[in-house]
Amino acid sequence: MRIRNLLSIFALTTALSGCVTPPPPAQVSKAEADNPAAAMPLPALQAFTGAAAVQALRSNSEMERDYLDLVFRMESGRTLSTLTRFKGPITIAMRGAVPATAPTELARVVKRFRAEAGLDVSITGNSADASIVIDFRPKSEMRSAVPSAACFVVPGVSSFEEYVRARGTAKVDWGHVQVREHAAIFVPSDTNPQEVRDCLHEELAQALGPLNDLYRLSDSVFNDDNFQSVLTGFDMLMLRVHYSKDLANGMNEAEVAARLPGILNRLNPKGARAGELRRMSPRSWINATEASFSGGRARPEAAQRMLSIAMAQGWRDGRLAFSHFAMARAITATDPAAAIQHYARAQEIWRGLPGGAIHAAHADMQLAAIALSSGQDAKALALTERAIPVARQFQNASLLATLLGLQAEAYEATGRVTEARTARLDSLGWARYAFGSDAQVQARMQDIAALGSRGRRG
């Protein structure tokens, strides 16, 4: 399940809204006129091609534990007694109000499943008999069923109507599944292209393989922090392991654990070395994380609990970095100097982790927003120039559009008008993919323009 209102929202708005005092109503029209992007025709919608950037770089001994925690535990904390997977060829169909970009995105990820995970999977137009049906529904309809989810997957059904009738029964309970025969994925039909793509990647991977998400994984989409937008090399390796000929439906955790070292050493010989054993995150830290990103007044206190628990646990991985990041975003508006220190500490940790470059780029975006709003245009340019190639490499259009918009404002402030226009046009193209409607694109560009205006006022 992909969670709403976590990184996909906060990382692109906190620095903007937290550092900018909104103008009074009488000044709204003037502020809009000061937005250079508003006067530009929107360019064609951009889209990524190619595979994910992150490969499986950690040791096999680490990934053994990761695989077991992903397969035999659920996000709710429940345990699963046996491994389950599909038997034979797997077919995928779409139904409902299918967004225009969805067929292309589905074809790309299915091609990757075949090439990188070795799965016998294909697309069909027959949703009645498909192994997995992707049912596109309005957000309001989905939220009536699962309020916290951007998208989600359930077993045993092939449509939203069937799911609603079976909700609360064993039919749609993963704990009662013995062999995967049918599953349905529910994705918003009225959302932006990036969210459609991200949902397809994560929910298809969970329909096929591991069901859990782990905050400790910096190199995976199986993580509720949502830093990784598309399936990584680690994720594809986990799927390849899941469908190994040495595993079978009905195996318990001990039986799978006994076979994992041989499977991983065969599939990933470069990982045959010692590694750090990382345990599950305690519920207290997860609760603090959810509270910190809930948007309520208790965010600083919740972020401090995150950080205190992470330090008490002795973590040195992405969970400690994420705790510093949460602390930074919670105090950016009230104590920007301290926030900068927490962002810097988070970056230091993330840059030493597999897949952590995209996490550090999110911190760069926040720092660039702070720099731009305080008139430090050269610093904002340096931060965006470092982060933009990373956002492209990791295929995160929302981050890329925001970084390019910040860069355009910094160019404008330093008199580099031609470069500002180029960056702004590029930003608008990616913003159309990331944010959807023209109104949302212009609203985001207006937020960024307000940062530049504040920096120029000093």
Describe this structure in words.
This protein has 2 domains: 2-48 and 279-457, Serine Threonine Protein Phosphatase 5, Tetratricopeptide repeat (Alpha Horseshoe), CATH 1.25.40; 60-271, 3-Layer(aba) Sandwich (Collagenase (Catalytic Domain)). The chain has helices at residues 7-19, 28-33, 60-71, 102-116, 139-145, 160-166, 193-208, 233-242, 253-267, 283-292, 299-313, 318-331, 336-350, 357-373, 377-393, 397-413, 417-435, 438-457; strands at residues 2-3, 90-96, 121-123, 132-137, 149-155, 183-188. It contains 18 helices and 6 strands. Helix 4 (102-116) links the parallel strand 2 (90-96) and strand 3 (121-123). The longest helix is centred in the C-terminal third of the chain and has 20 residues, at 438-457. It has a 6-stranded mixed sheet with strand order 1-5-6-4-2-3. By secondary structure, the chain is an alpha/beta fold.
